[in-house]
Amino acid sequence: MDVLSLTAVHKRYGATTALAGVDLAVERGEVVALLGPNGAGKTTVFELLLGLVRPSAGRVEVLGAPPGRHRHRVGAMLQSAGLPEQVTVGELVTLVGRAYPRPLPVAEVLARTALTDRARRTVTALSGGERQRLLLAMALSGAPEVLLLDEPTAALDVASRRTFWRLVRTSVAEGATVLFATHDLIEAEAVADRVVVIARGQVLADAPPRALLAGGSDLEDVFLTLTEESPAAEGARS
Ligand code: ATP
Q1: Rounded to an integer, what is the distance from CA 211 to the centroid of its chain?
Q2: What is the DSSP letter of 41?
C-alpha cells in the first residue's frame, strides 16, 4: 500500500493553476525529494496531503484514507510555521506531545533533535538551526509514521544540514516514510531514494537520483533541462 498518493490531482486558485494533473505515490519507508523551481506547486502538495486545502480534481490519500483522517500518524514541518516566542523549548515539545495519543517522551524527543541542553531556552534565544531542530522535534513528538517536510533545511549551514538529516534518518531507520521539498540538488541526491521533479504543476521526472544522472550530467543540469526546456513544463499555468 502506498503511504502517500496523489492521483490526477489538479489544484486551482482562481485563475492560477498550482497543480495540473499530478500523480505521485510514496511507499512505506521511502525518502522522496520534491524538487522544483519557485511556484512549481511543492507547498501545495504538502497542503493537500495535510488536508489544509482540497484538490480541485483528483484524489489525495494518506495512509490509505483521505488527508486528515490519520493526522496523529503524520508529522509535518511547513514553511509557514510560526512559533510562540516566549515559550521554552521543553514547554513547547511537551504541549505538542499532548495532542497525540502515544507521544514520544519529551526527553527522548529533545535528545533525538540534539536540543536537550536547550530545553529551558525560550524560542527567541534559539539560533536558526536550533529553531529548525525545534520544528523537527515538534514534528516527531507524536512518533509519526509519515514525515512531511517542506524545505526543512532552508537557511541551514552545511553542518546543521548534516545533523538534521542524521536525526531524520533515525526515524527512517524505525520505518518512517519521508517526503521533503528542497531547492538543494546535492541534498536531494545525498538524502533521497527517489527524486520527483515538478514544474508548473506537473511532474517532469520521478526516479532514483542515480537514474536521473545516468546520462553523465550532474543533477543541476538534469534539473535545468527538465524545468526550462521540457515541453511538459510549458503552458500548464492558466
Ligand atoms: P516555492 O519554491 O517558491 O516555495 P512552491 O513550489 O512551493 O514554491 P506553491 O507554493 O505550491 O509553490 O505555489 C504554486 C502556485 O500556486 C504559485 O503560482 C502560487 O502563487 C500559487 N498559490 C499557492 N497558494 C495560493 C493561494 N492560497 N492563493 C492563490 N495562489 C496560490
Answers
A1: 22
A2: S
pLDDT digits over 91-126, tens only? 999 999 998 988 999 999 999 888 999 999 999 999
Going from the Cα of 233 to the center of ligand 1, the distance in angstroms, rounded, reads 16
| Pocket lining: 124 vs ligand 1, CB cutoff 6 Å | no
Beta carbon of 29 within 6 Å of any ligand 1 atom = no
Tell me the CA–centroid distance for residue 227 and ligand 1, in Å: 16
Residue 109 · residue 91 · CB < 8 Å: no
Cα–Cα distance, 188 to 182 (Å, whole number):
7
Question: What domains does the chain contain, in order, with CATH numbers?
Answer: 2-230 (3.40.50.300)
pTM: 0.91
Does residue 142 register a pLDDT over 70? yes
Atom 21 of ligand 1 has which residue's CA nearest to it? 18
